[in-house]
Amino acid sequence: MGANYTPSQGWFHHWLDFDLDAVRSDLDALVALGLDHVRVFALWPVFQPNRSFIRPRAVEQLGHLVDAAAERGLDVAVDALQGHLSSFDFVPSWLRTWHRRNMFTDPEAVDGAARYLETLAASLAGRPNFLGMTLGNEVNQFAGPPHPDPDPCTYEEAGRWLTRLLDVCERAAPGRLHTHAEYDAVWFQDGHPFTPAQAARLGRATTLHSWVFNGTAQRHGHDGTATVRLAEYLIQVATAWADDPARPVWLQEVGAPAPLVPPEHAAAFATATLDNALTCAELSGITWWCSHDVSRELADFPELEYGLGLLTSDGAVKPAGRAVAETAARLRTGPPRPARRTTALVLDAGDAGTAPHRSVCAPGGAFFEAWVRLAYQGVRAGAVLADRARDAAHLEGRGITEVVWPSDVK
């Protein structure tokens, strides 16, 4: 149980005025909540302002942050290609305007990103509390609409990009939790070049970003079954695409966005969401978004981004922070007891590799709404791809004894 670290002073711009004492204070506050890890974000233009130059001072500061976390018993996962954070894009100048090139397909651009990832991973490889690299935060949003200036690619090109950069991380820091992270277009948007199969089969774990502002809370309300079980649902969808039924799933981002989740209901939402996610045997970790609120001194954020923290920007614990701390305390006393999911809903998104009809998984889609109806009926359903629905060995290996098609759920 951990948090995505949003520094209380300066947000992610803190790399420009790095203050290790302020970082230590923030980390102390997270330890006081009973958390055991943080996910941290290196701003790409700050760390690699030129394609052939990675700033040694920035790499050194990242190491100091990881060491400060180790002193407090915190593990650290590091995101490199930032990329996209809270509605702002941080892309180095050597990819934009006069030097415009596609980050996913231009050979020199990919070489530059690989060099950057290799440098960060190698610098951290000897630190025992370094969990691993995530390539970047929701980098798939650059690959197409609704991004205003996309870097288009095909699903084959996206797959090659992911494979190459994950391999670079593995060579630089062998055996660590190297992953990639996408926003939910990867599961929901027909034609999106990053695919569910890539999310569930490449890297050491599947990462999920569960945000109820994707249409779920709008359709089902802040405390509807679909809303408080969205994270659980996404874990089951991800498991359906995995080749290994035991592949770990990391709930890498989950939060309570106002006003869809009113602030007075944030604690109840957090408790219900986490309790439902913890019924999933595949779940390996939860990282709440985010540690600290964004200071109101910073301008131009979408309103919901200012209040997502477990703590305020001046360090006061919020109701959601207390709820997460209570869940962390329960987990320290004993592991969760996953539900036995003997019923699986059949997920037919077309070809399993490209998922041309994956919008059936989105809020309002046939698969999504059928899974929610089963949930209303008290069924903790799993999910199975249509091409595996009659594979007796696959079903037996997952403990599935009943297969249900969405059209059969009344």
Automatic annotation (TrEMBL):
This is Glycosyl hydrolase. Gene3D superfamilies: Glycosidases. It comes from the Bacteria. It comes from Streptomyces chrestomyceticus. GO terms for molecular function: hydrolase activity. The keyword Hydrolase applies. Keywords: Hydrolase.
